Amino acid sequence: MKGANWKVSYDGYLEGYHFAAAHPDTVTPRSPSNRAHYTGLGPHVRIAFPQVSIPRLHHLPREEWGKQENRGYDFIRLLFPNFSLFVAPEMTQFAQLFPGPTPGENTTVLNYIAPRKPETEAEMKAFDEMCDFFYNVVLEEDYALGLKVQNGLESGAMTHVTFGRNERGNQYFHKWLAYYLSDPATRTAPSL
């Protein structure tokens, strides 16, 4: 899969405020826009996105909340600098983003893993359809938007980019990029 600059494309994995604009019929019915909790783990990030069903956790004992992934919230696990992992009950998607042949391109490798081997044709068909759904969301919604962002950046109309308060994952990622590109003698590890 081809997309915009790898950092522009990766930025979409690092926040959820774009859900309503980019995914009104696919992601937003499950996960509201602009709601997330970020955990920094060295240069890596875990993002928790609440689902619209999260109120059901209120009635569970707090010690049970951590066992409810995909039944009230989802995690995206991002391994610096270019890896994203999403685990769903039906499948796991992992994305690897690599710089492309030009600075304005990337190559993304998407892989899907079934939680268990599909035993029947119907199970295999359901798995394939789920993988196609996620692939199409990334390609037709995220990457289509990323190409527009890339075009805007290449226009020269902007002199800089400022990440806002709702882009904590993006801020953290770019701080770690700056950290690794800085002089080792003067480095200070970023915090979230």
Feature tags:
single chain; 192 residues; alpha+beta; Naphthalene 1,2-dioxygenase Alpha Subunit, Chain A, domain 1; 7 strands; globular
Taken together, the total number of domains comes to 1
Strand content: 15-25%
CATH class: Alpha Beta
Question: Strand order across the biggest sheet?
Answer: 1-7-6-5-4-3-2
Indicate the structural class: alpha+beta
Instruction: Please tell me how large the radius of gyration is.
Output: 18 Å
Write the CATH homologous superfamily. Naphthalene 1,2-dioxygenase Alpha Subunit, Chain A, domain 1
- Let me know the average pLDDT: 93
Topology as a string of helices (H) and strands (E): EHHEEEEEEHH
Biggest β-sheet strands, sense, barrel: 7 strands, antiparallel
CATH architecture: Alpha-Beta Complex
Separation, N- and C-terminal Cα atoms: 31 Å
Number of strands: 7
CATH topology: Naphthalene 1,2-dioxygenase Alpha Subunit, Chain A, domain 1
Tally of separate helices? 4
Structural shape: globular
Helix content: 25-40%
